[in-house]
Amino acid sequence: MDGGGDNGRSLLTMLGLGVLACNSAAAVYRSWGDVASVLFVVAANAALLLLLHFLCKFDRARPGDDDRGKAKAAVWALTTLLTVMFASRVAPLMPPIVGVAVWVVALATAGGGFWALFIGP
To answer: Are 26 and 38 in contact, with CB atoms under 8 Å apart?
Structure first.
């Protein structure tokens, strides 16, 4: 399934991005009157595309290379951003104690990701 001659893009990746684009267009269409929701969809998609870009850079860089460290930091920052974005949308819809649990899990995920990428073995 890997399209090695196509800049490393596989058919499955392109299909996934196409489904994401269609789903995002439908979400924007459904929430057209709500500026905050449209901005959320656009920002989430931009963050996802940047995340894919930096994941590819991380994959291609050699261990110990400066670009690899920068890509790793960008990957962590973008995943943390997406986690916080989605927690901020989900937590208010839940009962208060569950909303707190959503934030605790989001923060634990961000902290665990930081530990796994920068501190741990």
So the answer is: no
What single letter denotes the amino acid at residue 115? W
SS3 of the chain: the string is CCCCCCCCCCHHHHHHHHHHHHHHHHHHHHCCCCHHHHHHHHHHHHHHHHHHHHHHHHHHCCCCCHHHHHHHHHHHHHHHHHHHHHHHHHHHHCCHHHHHHHHHHHHHHHHHHHHHHHHCC
Entry pTM: 0.82
Cα(4)–Cα(100) distance, integer angstroms: 45
Q: Which two tokens stand for residue 118?
A: 């920068």
**Could you report the per-residue pLDDT of 11-35, keeping only the tens digit for each?**
898 898 899 999 999 999 999 999 9
Cα–Cα distance measured from residue 69 to residue 55, given in angstroms and rounded to the nearest whole number: 11
The Cα–Cα gap between 115 and 120 comes to 6
